[in-house]
Amino acid sequence: MRWDRPAGEGTSSEILDWPSLRSRVGGDLGLLREMVVIFAAEYRLMLEQLETAIERGEASGVEKMAHKLKGSLVQFSAGAATETARRLENLGKTNALEGAGAAVRGLRREIEELIGALNALLSRRVNE
Amino acid sequence: MAILDTAAHLTLPKVLLIEDNPVDARFVSGLLQAQSPQLECRHVSSLAEALPLLEAETFDAVLLDLNLEDSTGYETFAAVHRAAAAAASILVLSGSDDEELAIRTVREGAQDYLVKGSFDGGLLLRSLRYAVERKHSEEALRKSEATVRAVFEGSLDGIVIMEDHGICLEANSAAVAMFCCAREELVGRNILEFFGKDFSAEWMRLRVSGSGRGQFWVLCPAGANRLLDCSFKTNILSGQHLAVLRDITDQHNLEEQLRQSQKMEAVGRLAGGVAHDFNNILGVISGHAELMQLQAIAPEQRSKAAKILAATDKASSLTRQLLAFGRRQVVTPELIDLRDVLGELNTMISSLMGAETQVVLRARDPLGLVRADQSQLEQVILNLTTNAREAMPHGGTMTIALENHTTGSDDAELPQGEYVRLSISDTGCGIPAELVPQIFEPFFTTKKTGSGLGLSTVYGIVKQSGGFVTLQSAPGQGATFKVYLPRVLDEVPRPVRGEEAAPAHFDGSETILVVDDEDELRDAVAEYLEGRGYNVFRAKNGQEAVLLAEKWQRKISLLISDVIMPKMSGRMLVDYMRKSRPETAVLVISGYADDETLRRGLIKTASFLQKPFTLQMLGAKVRELLDERKVGR
Fold first, then answer.
1. Inter-chain residue contact A34 with B30, CB threshold 8 Å
2. Is A126 on the interface with B (CB under 8 A)?
3. Is the pLDDT of residue B597 over 90?
């Protein structure tokens, strides 16, 4: 299934750069849906591991998990969430975990908004 | 030269994706499937899974995320590169913050990198194909370079790459050997320094012309200079010039030896020919001077005749030396122990050398025998010892050594064989290297009083005896002449020849036929023999002699004949006489007997007298032959 019309109307570009994402997956809706399903199944565990690392003060763990999340978020063109994940990665890299907890909470919220937006877009396209 | 493996270009790549992020993995594999459904993409999420797979299977390309669960950063790349680089191209998937690391992997062997979040399916596939192509090109280049390197290093010819000023950039092993130095000494040094002065100008000319070929001497330490045949091609790359070098020193030396040998042969023929004619003239002069001496009444006339005879004697000594050099002397080869020859000459050599020179004789047992003419060998030893004495005007040591010698790799210029080697060394002034090639040439001398025939006589005699003579010398370090004579091992020597007793008187009454195309010599011989009481017939060639022999019905006791004559040669005349008058003794007289005559056996079956001879010698020989015949009957 491919998109051949403009889409993403009504979604904040901070959450998701829809034209960019659409272009990169080549309009392959099925592929995008698979990616969303995989990410939705994975991200909670990843966030939990991130929070655990923060609680234990394991900076390298914070860096590693934030980097992994960032990699996925980049693929969804999720500008705000990607930036938060990058910030967390840097906190881990510089072993400065103050404020990391608040950042994770922000990231969780941004990811949930992202998934919500993606699901909304995908269901709208299917119905169309 | 490019060696391309084109088969891989025709198939779609088989790809291994190493990625621990499931979203990324699905994204990449999904893009590839959408772009190229036939492309095979295998996915693993850890290095531990990837390495055995790379060992077990061949992939065209690896898509590699550097940060995995079990390995991060450059180490991930290094491990995969070690396992896969021989066959697969590596395309690194990098985060935007890791670009520097990605660039490093490309420097170290990855074919390309892509930043996550910045590529779509089209770019991914293009990058993948480009990485595979680049890998193939690199592999072809590597193979080509390996081949060129093997040819470069394995070449028997020297190969040198130089920059504009002649600085050596690269040289193969053969070139290093030709320049007589280590590779580290050659590379980085100016090649022009190794060549003679003529090379610099040639190098400038070559730089303009672009290519060329020439022969140049390379100056090596210890005088071991090499002659190189050089082929040049300039600007094979910008500012880089190729020289291919072939060492032709040995070939050059052999050609020089051949040229020298041919020159000596030609000079020898000329000298022999001149000596022959000169001997005939000397025979006439000495013959008539002897007759004059015999017939003269006034003491003053006899004295003048004696002076003429003394002068002809000196002249004939010179022609003998020329004949020896020209190898035209008639020789009597016999088995000789050189120790006996030296023993007989010992006193003479000691007196020749004088009190200031020590003479050392060394003979190493066992010593083989040689087949040569004793008087010629005496001449060789005397000439070489005289040469040694003249090289040591203030005294020194002369060593004469005798030993058996088998030629081997040390004296490759000599034919393989068993020899007796006579070495005569002095501690004198030595001979400059540039004079050595001329030293055996006739009339070449470095002395004010020398005739220049001593060493050329040695050369001629040794050659005639089937041997070789070599010289080793350097200024201030004396000289060593080595004479190699073929060794005869399986024959028993005869006693050294003694002087034969001369007959008491030479008169007789037998009939003798004298044949010679030189009128004056024939007349002198005939007149002398007639004076001794013989009945003499004269003929100026073989044909005339045959006519005379056919007319004369009575006995002819002796035929005295020249060898080379017009109309009918001496050889043919002797053959005729052997058949028609087997009782007639034969005495052959000649200025020289060439090899052809010797081969045909003329000298072996007849007595021989070398011109010029004194009439006394002739009288003695005639009487001896006639008396032998009488005893024989």
1. yes
2. no
3. no
